[in-house]
Amino acid sequence: MDWTFLALSVVKIIGLVFLVILPMVAYSVWAERRVSAAIQDRVGPNRVGIAGLLQPMADGLKFILKEDFTPDHVRKTYYWMAPALTMIPALLTCAVLPFGSRLFGEKMVIADLDVGPLFVFAIASLSVYGIVLAGWASNSKYPFFGGVRSTSQMISYEIALGLSIVPLLMIFGTLNLGEIVQYQAENGWALLPLWGESLSLKGFLLFIPIFISFIIFMTSIFAETNRLPFDLPECETELVAGYHTEYSSMKFALFFLGEYAAMIIGSGLAVTLFFGGWSLPFGWLAPESIEADVPWWQGLIHIGVFFGKVIAIILFFIWIRWSLPRFRYDQLMRLGWIFFFEIAVINVILTAVILIWVK
Amino acid sequence: MAIVVKRPKLKWWEQLYLPGILKGLGITLRHFFATLRGKTKVTMQYPEEKWNDHLPEHYRGAPALVTDEQDRERCVACQLCEFICPPRAITIKPEEIPSEDKWAKVEKRPREFDIDMIRCIYCGLCEEVCPEQAIFLRKDYSITGTSRAEMVHHKKKLYEIGGQRVGLVNKWNELK
Questions:
Q1: Could you give the strand order of the β-sheet that contains B108-116, starting from the edge strand earlier in sequence?
Q2: Which of A6, A323, B7, B171 falls between 20 and 30 A from A252, CA-CA?
Q3: What pTM was computed for the model?
Q4: C-alpha torsion sign, points A292, A295, A296, A301
């Protein structure tokens, strides 16, 4: 066994998950509250620390100190498993995201898999089990409805989500997320084809299917992460709190954190596929190839750029949440099955046609 | 009879949702930046910023007793406020004014005058019913205490809040 590889992986896992993703989760909750307050002409949490910046710590402390209440009528085993089952997949998916180019000669990705997007979709779809189990094990009506809704929502959106990135994979010709980012760094981001090879008729024509994929992908990610306008599984106005109605204390917090972690990973995937991951626009500071070494300061800049983009997308998530009303259930199913599925399939064919016939 | 709600016929670009979504995003973004620049009137930061200067003239706060211009307590312990008080917050124990007192002709004054601020509903009926204009609802609104006993305003406290009030009701004036 290669011990250096193991040690480096552990360092990367701890660095990414515990020092970056989890604090980001805490602060995206803070950002959610402050931004929503600003949008609604309110102030938001501003008491704990400067501008309320210590609010996440106070919230965390509250969750830990609260009584961890398990209702008498629940199925204990599944009830205890469910929160972990939503949190774990959300954190697992970040293994394949390239969050930087190279730092001290080491690739800034935990697992350099050749099936990146497939791995993300496979693991992310597991998180629905947590929600369904929570709804089922709670043994009361609102969580049950939440769980059932979650199931059908996932089925109707995952097809569109998977199909929406097929055009991109056809264009990039690889499933390795690191190579996808390197390709975009050299030849223009998928949504900004203004340098390299994409500065051609073919590149501009391909922008059309890419833009359609982007809209389908983003909408599906919203549904996948149970965010408004597709937060039907929790849906406060109809189902109290949906699948986590019966949960309290840290178990509830795990659902909450899982949701936000999924949001961050979703944003990371969107950034990697559509906005060139860690690369700067117009090929600035782009390494010559995927194997080329990168000075440490450039590596740091790349990591900063990646997380800057992720934060921008998270703000977009928040912005959408406080602007749009929730879809009705039949509208959601219609959108998923009748529109996005068909559009995504046509989009794949369109891309193939452009790739074959336009030189 | 069933009412048929006419649905507006949407144009094809309206059925795409996207223009509507962009318009909505624009509205929220405008509000977001307006709040950031402090253009919108937002929440009062309560403990630092108090209501004191913003209360309207007719505000009904804590009830209090007042003295008149000769420092005589206006209350004559008629107990009308005690009887009208809907939550029975007021308790009065009257006493006779001794004959050697300067105000002996008033005959009665309250020996004890308690208002239980836990019960008080700030309705203002005591002020309305008082024939002597002795009790008024002031603008004090932040009545707090750490025990039930502390929340009862005794006579001394009531005069402290009320202070002196000059005007009308002069039938007990020495000169008359």
A1: B90-96, B108-116, B152-153
A2: A323
A3: 0.80
A4: negative
CA distance B2 to chain A (A): 23
Residue B84: the pLDDT is 93
Residue predicted with more confidence, A249 or A32: A32
CB atoms within 10 A of CB B36: 11
CB atoms B28 and A39 under 8 Å: yes
- Amino acid type, A78: Y
Per-residue pLDDT tens digits for A128-148:
888 888 888 888 888 888 888
Burial of A89 (0-12, 13-18, 19+ CB in 10 A): buried
Which of A37-51, A277-291, A324-338, B16-30 comes out lowest in average pLDDT? A277-291
Residue of A nearest to B18 (CA): A215
Q: Do B35 and A322 touch (CB under 8 A)?
A: no
Q: Do A42 and B28 touch (CB under 8 A)?
A: no
Nearest to A225 by CA among A261, A262, A190: A262
Q: Examine the predicted complex and report whether its ipTM is higher than 0.85.
A: no
B166/A contact by beta carbon, under 8 A: no
B144 CB near a chain A CB, below 8 Å? no
Query: Which value, in Å, is the radius of gyration of the alpha carbons in chain A?
Result: 21
Q: Which of A227, A230, A311, A300 is nearest to A268 (CA)?
A: A311
CB contact under 8 A, B21 and A323: yes
Kindly list the domain boundaries of chain A, sorted by start residue.
69-357
Ramachandran quadrant class, A105 (left: phi over 0; alpha: psi -120 to 50; beta: rest): left
| Sign of the torsion formed by the C-alpha atoms of A206, A207, A212 and A218 | positive
